Amino acid sequence: MFLIGFVFFAVEAPNTFGQGGIINEVFARMDAHNKALTSLKASVTMVKVNTQLGGVQDTNEGTAIYLPQRGKDALIRIDWKSPKESLAVVNKQYVIYRPALSQAYTGSTNDAQKNPKAGNALSFMNMSRAQLKQNYDTVYLGQETVRGGVQTWHLQLTPKAKSNYKAAEIWVDGNGMPVQSKVIENNGDSTTVLLSGLQKNVKISGSEFKITLPKETKIIKS
Length: 222
Fold this sequence. Notes:
Strand content: over 45%
Strand order of the largest sheet: 7-8-9-10-11-1-2-3-4-5-6-12
Distance between the termini: 50 Å
Number of domains: 1
């Protein structure tokens, strides 16, 4: 029944509410979803486009876990399959471990040059309606179906203040879940992250976000 209602709303909303109305409705659903979400496990697909190399695409797949923290940034971990790589973001600090090279990169997510792009894209799930309105100029781009047949509202977010990226796009499903995010950097490169196979509000321990580095790992600090 909810799905029928969502489809009807998605078709009628642009004509009924206009830009402001549909954006407010999407933000309200995102806010409600954010408050109700206690954890998330999902499959993740990331596509990077390098405009400096003529639009060359690099695709990677893996798994992600996400644990919101009220009043703090969420805990995020992504484990990529090929090449193997693990990313964890905890308390504004990230670790990227590349076992094939026996190297780990560490730093602050506030670093404009080294901020891990996948974690950056996932950060929109943790933003409240007030934060979204305060920090971004938003444009509604229409309804779209993302891979897997999920119907979404497509929004473009432009940072109001100087940022390490010039724009972002999010695709939000009927429950208020941003199932796909795209971050467009100042040089035109982009990173798109799609979440699928969602498992919400399952048990996740904080210890699962710790990446254990072998002793021989070379740590490179940003």
